């Protein structure tokens, strides 16, 4: 009966001379207007698909500073091209005693849905007001609805007192021999070797590991993971979240020690995990990196830059932030990145490009304009 009705609907469209509304093009680097005609203000963001709707969360950037003066914004769409402003999902507050005081640094917000608790959980990178980038904390908030408002729970360093679960006895013995006082000069071969062996993990063990640029990933079994740049942005950590997604279990691994990676974005295809990151060059773009693994816990193998074509060496002028799967399409993933404008933060632009595959390996090629019809 359903197919009959669908066929009848198509026939009526033909009889009246109507045709389905064509898909709107995605044009990276241009101004993207929301339903109010205002440029979408959701930078360093991520996306969540829930009950037929995509929700886009990101940093509200002001005209003159990248510090958080508003908070985390939320937009919704059913087609990934028409975006409705849903307001501030997590506002900063006018209380300098709060971790999320107006003027703090609140970056890379990501939201995931917990099917067991029915809650929506947001994690983000947080730097305390007036302390530069010294705090290196992860913040968490929760809501009963996807659009919020989200209730801030806490912020802090991650996995205090715990070593990576894959550090064997020999690695721990080596770690015990490392003395930070012997490596005061950074960027030497000896220092890099010591970082690789866990020098900074040891330094931060008691107070917890640093957490900056980050993303979240929910696996097929419902387990969720917090993936973040740690150890002075030198090493990525993948840390398991608790069943309610509101804390860490203490199980974590290090990825690409001393490799200087940030801005992680992750997806899985045919049982293989793929992660795209960037180097650490401040607001300036650099060459993307890509890693793969048969397990979330590794081993992770680095591949060449996944970007191809003009400006591929600078990730087309952007920096990775998230990879979103398109619902209802096979092997359809969108690479999302930000084109930062540090002198005018609110004018930062977005890059969305389809991820393609050659012999099973992802690659990203610039397209001035494309529609979701690209995916079959």
Task: Describe the structure in your own words.
By secondary structure, the chain is mainly beta. 10% of the residues lie in helices and 38% in strands. It contains four helices and 21 strands. The chain has a five-stranded mixed β-sheet with strand order 17-21-20-19-18, with no helix packed on it. Strand 20 and strand 21 (361-365) form a beta hairpin. The chain is globular and about 65 Å long. It starts with a helix and ends in an 11-residue tail after the last strand.
Brief digest:
With 376 residues, the protein is mainly β. The chain contains four helices and 21 strands.
Give the N-terminus to C-terminus distance in angstroms: 25 Å
Q: Which oligomeric form is depicted?
A: single chain
Q: Order of strands across the widest beta sheet?
A: 17-21-20-19-18
- Along the chain, the helix and strand elements come as HEEEEEEEEHHHEEEEEEEEEEEEE
Discrete helix count: 4
Question: Uncertain spans, ≥5 residues at pLDDT below 50?
Answer: 1-16
């Amino acid at each position: 009966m359903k197919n009959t009705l669908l066929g009848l609907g198509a026939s009526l469209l033909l009889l009246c001379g109507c045709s389905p509304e064509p898909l709107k093009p995605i044009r990276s680097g241009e101004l993207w207007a929301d339903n109010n005609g205002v440029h979408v203000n959701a930078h360093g963001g991520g996306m969540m698909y829930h009950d037929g709707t995509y929700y886009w969360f990101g940093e509200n950037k002001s005209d003159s500073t990248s510090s958080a003066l508003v908070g985390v914004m939320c937009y919704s769409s059913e087609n990934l091209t028409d975006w409705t402003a849903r307001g501030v999902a997590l506002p900063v507050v006018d209380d300098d005693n709060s971790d999320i005081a107006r003027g703090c640094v609140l970056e890379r917000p990501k939201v995931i849905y917990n099917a067991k608790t029915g809650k929506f959980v947001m994690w983000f990178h947080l730097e305390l007001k007036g302390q530069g980038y010294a705090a290196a904390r992860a913040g968490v908030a929760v809501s009963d609805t996807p659009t919020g408002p989200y209730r801030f729970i806490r912020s802090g360093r991650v996995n205090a007192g715990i070593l990576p679960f894959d550090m064997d006895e020999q690695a721990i013995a080596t770690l015990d021999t490392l003395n930070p006082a012997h490596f005061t000069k950074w960027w030497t071969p000896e220092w890099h070797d010591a970082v690789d062996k866990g020098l900074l993990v040891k330094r931060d063990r008691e107070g917890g590991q640093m957490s900056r640029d980050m993303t979240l990933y929910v696996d097929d079994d419902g387990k969720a993971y917090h993936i973040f740049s740690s150890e002075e942005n030198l090493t990525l950590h993948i840390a398991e979240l608790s069943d309610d997604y509101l804390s860490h279990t203490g199980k974590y691994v290090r990825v690409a020690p001393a490799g200087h990676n940030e801005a992680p974005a992750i997806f899985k295809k045919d049982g293989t995990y793929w992660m795209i990151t960037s180097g650490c060059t401040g607001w300036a773009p650099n060459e993307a990196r890509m890693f793969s693994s048969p397990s979330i816990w590794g081993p992770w193998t680095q591949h060449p830059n996944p970007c191809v074509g003009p400006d591929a060496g600078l990730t087309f002028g952007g920096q990775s932030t998230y990879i979103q799967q398109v619902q209802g399409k096979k092997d359809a993933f969108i690479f999302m990145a930000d084109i930062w404008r540090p002198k005018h933060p609110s004018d930062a632009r977005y890059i969305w490009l389809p991820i393609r595959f050659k012999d099973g390996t992802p690659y990203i090629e610039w397209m001035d304009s494309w529609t979701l019809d690209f995916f079959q």
